[in-house]
Design a protein that fits this description.
elongated, 29% helix, alpha/beta, eight-stranded mixed sheet, 6 helices, Glucose Oxidase, domain 1, 24% strand, disordered C terminus
């Protein structure tokens, strides 16, 4: 089993919040949270849908950016099985940059799901496929009149005025009802080491809270001595 597959398997029981907690301890700003991205398919912020996988990135640029590179073929035909497709649209772009045909092909390729830093369209098509898609918003219009793909599987910047975050190919993306978190690939093993102990501590804390215990004393009992990763 590859290192990436082993990390994905180890993360399956956990939520995006669990991963963010670990990343805070590893000094990652905002715990890797990518604000504004929410679930649109298979349902709108409902259910147990969760996607975890290495990022396969696609960068759109404004159509008049002639100096930007142009891929030789369509990105959707090269999506690796198990990956999470991350589409980066230009800031403030009104047009959608991802549609139903893209999910149709991505699903056939075995992708875990898609995350759109921008708008998606053809919402019902994604839902009919039961394919997980997270995005910032929905739109109606295809991107061709205003934007084009520039780079595939290269680092992309997350569109945010509040933070400076980049998604690199192979970074682990975790998305569920809570939101989307990016786990840098070079911190993945350390994060996995942290998560199991912190989740166990939270479960023990919750158990005692349900029996009437005070949060302050219970939290100190179970959470104060959480282990740190071996490499720190």
């Amino acid at each position: 089993m590859s290192a990436s597959k082993a990390i994905v398997k180890a993360l399956q029981p956990y939520t995006s919040c669990d991963v963010a907690d670990a990343l805070i301890k590893l000094k990652v700003p905002h715990g890797g949270f990518l604000p504004g991205l929410t679930m649109w398919s298979p349902k709108r912020q409902e259910g147990t849908t969760k996607i975890i996988g290495p990022a396969y990135t696609v960068k759109y640029v404004r159509k008049n950016y002639e100096n930007e590179p142009k891929p030789a073929s369509h990105y959707i035909d090269t999506v690796p099985a198990g990956s999470v497709l991350f589409i980066s649209a230009p800031p403030k772009m009104i047009n959608a940059c991802y549609g139903g045909l893209m999910s149709t092909r991505a699903q056939y390729s075995g992708a875990a799901g898609s995350i759109i830093d921008g708008r998606l369209r053809d919402l019902q098509e994604h839902r009919d496929l039961d394919f997980p898609v997270f995005a910032k918003e929905v739109g109606t219009t295809a991107p061709a009149e205003v934007a084009r793909v520039s780079e595939v599987n290269s680092p992309v910047r997350f569109n945010s005025e509040e933070q400076e975050t980049h998604i690199h190919p192979g970074d682990i993306l975790i998305a569920d009802l809570n939101g989307v978190v990016v786990l840098p690939k070079d911190l993945a093993e350390q994060a996995v080491e942290l998560i199991a102990s912190q989740v166990e501590a939270d479960e023990n804390t919750a158990k005692e809270l349900k029996q009437g215990a005070l949060f302050d004393e219970t939290s100190k009992k179970y959470r104060a001595g959480l282990k740190w990763p071996k490499k720190l």
